[in-house]
Structure formats: C-alpha cells, structure tokens
Design goal:
The protein is mainly β. It is 13% helix and 56% strand. It has a five-stranded antiparallel sheet with strand order 1-3-4-5-2, with helices on one face.
Amino acid sequence: MFSASTQPEQRPARAADEIAADAPAASGSIVAWHGCDHLGPVYEDDTLYSELELEETEPLDGGGGLVHLRSRVRARRAEESSDVLDWRFVGVMA
C-alpha cells in the first residue's frame, strides 16, 4: 500500500515501485508491457492498493525465466474505492 499524489502518466512508475515491493525477484527487471489501461483518476490523499497476479511463466535457456504479471490498482478515498490502473507486463526472474 502506498499513498500517492500523482499525475495519471506517473501511475505505471508508481505501480512498478509497488511491484518491486511485492515481487522482489522481478524488481528492476520489467522488460515489456502487454498493456496499461488508465481506468480512473488518482487524487492527492488517495490511498492506492494493488493486487498482483501471475498470469504465465516462461523458462529461459540457461536458467531464470520470464513472468507475465498483471497489476490491478484501486484508489480509496473517503468511504469509496475505484479501479484506477490495469497493467500487464513482463519481468525477468533470476
């Protein structure tokens, strides 16, 4: 969980920070994106929550592999919450 005061174009970078905390094996190793849908605005004082889902793994010759991940981010403000980001990307695991 992190609190953000970001512009919409900064959300994938913030989501990458959250992914690094949730999935240290893939941190700093995002090599591709399948897509990134901005579903709603993020406002100052929103609290963001992400759910990370492993969609696929691909072993690499010589060890390690690629992981296809999906991060769904929700913003909570006051008593409501809403979807703000749906990001599918590929990371490298050692």
